[in-house]
Design brief:
By secondary structure, the protein is α/β, with parallel strands linked by helices. 33% of the residues lie in helices and 21% in strands. Bound molecules: guanosine-5'-diphosphate, 6-O-phosphoryl inosine monophosphate and magnesium ion.
Length: 428
Amino acid sequence: MSTVVITGAQWGDEGKGKIVDLLTEDADYIVRYQGGHNAGHTVVIGDEEFILHLIPSGILRPGKKCVIGNGVVIDPHALLTEIDGLREKGIEVKDNLFISGRAHIIMPYHRAIEKESEKQKGSLRIGTTGRGIGPTYADKMARVGIRVVDILDEEILMEKLMINIQEMNYFLERLYGVKGFVLDEVYKEYTGYAARLRDFAGDTSVLLNQALAEGKNILFEGAQGTHLDVDHGTYPYVTSSNATAGGACTGSGVGPTEINKVVGVVKAYTTRVGSGPFPTELKDATGEFLRDKGREYGATTGRPRRCGWFDVLATRYAARVNGFTGMAITKLDVLDDLDEIKICTGYSFEGKIYSEMPSELKVLEGCEPVLESIEGWKVSTSGISKYEELPLNAKKYIERIKDLIGVEVDIISTGFRRDETIILRKIF
Ligand code: GDP
Ligand code: IMO
Ligand code: MG
């Protein structure tokens, strides 16, 4: 039996989908524990590209069991569309998908409130994915949320909707001056979804703990990244869930004593989509080069991702708050053509050098990165699957990152396909 948590070390889109798909080969269960369809995890199998939003990437391998845990927020329409899309591509989604009855449901008023609130914020907007994630988690914490089990019970659904819609319509109509929602229409729409979701719903904590007792391997698939975590990220420019490894326990009902490994997915440079501080951002030709070569466009919203150098402070912080047992370094091949590659080892702000990531937005926004330079390797690493075959300077870059972060490297990814991978240490 083994349990492994995969989390993003930066601001999301580190290549978690590729790494999870790779490790799924040895896993029995693959579990999403937080976030919702704000995530976009890309998996390429042969010539076909799949983008998973809500369903664990494990669904692409036959015979694997996939779980959407209690910590996830579910938009039923998005989920059913994703299920239908996978089935159209010949992927089975049937008794291999389990959904926690305790997961919260995204309602249409959550999306509407988020849209208006973002508009109202103007230049201070978070740049959310517009999926209603924040307002749904806000309702969960305010203890007025609607869970999967609640939409399966028509009486409870009606009772909760009556209260919630009245309140939400007040905000929408009086505060934002837009049209509110009609109770019966929302009720009808959601009872319709309930009919299709019923077969998937259950107590997934019981299921996972039974699997542990039977000696099965469980892989937890984090969404977003450490610096988008609501507690540990660059608040308030974050998402509304715990994307860090601790979220795997609260978001699935598996105890912390059952977690064996935490692997951080670390992009060989840094990207961020949406607003918020990004100390190593490159607003020049090198940034554009990384975006083009790395195809850095959002898998969910299609927005261009902001690109920058590797940030040691951000990644070391991630190693600490997640407790990384190892790292999977991705997209090394994107750096192949560069003459010089830089690593940020400190932040300089008002005459002071920071060597740990500060929590003050003012510092993160106003600082200059202290950069160390590494000579590029200028040959293709694309598809290399043996460490010995990497050019010397690429090895030096990896070694330098390993030393500065203080965590061993388990995997190096040199392309988006499964076999474009160097395995240094076995995960399961
Ligand atoms: P996730 O959200 O962390 O799963 O990452 P995304 O799927 O949003 O973005 C990662 C992108 O990089 C996807 O298009 C992947 O196919 C691609 N990718 C992953 N690993 C590698 C790699 O090692 N090299 C290259 N060139 N692309 C990669
Ligand atoms: P994956 O799992 C990158 C960002 C949004 C925005 C902020 C809040 O593919 O790595 P939200 O809609 O969650 O309230 O938006 O978080 N964001 C992501 N950025 N990858 C993601 O997921 C993200 N999910 C949310 O751009 O800045
Ligand atoms: Mg993504």
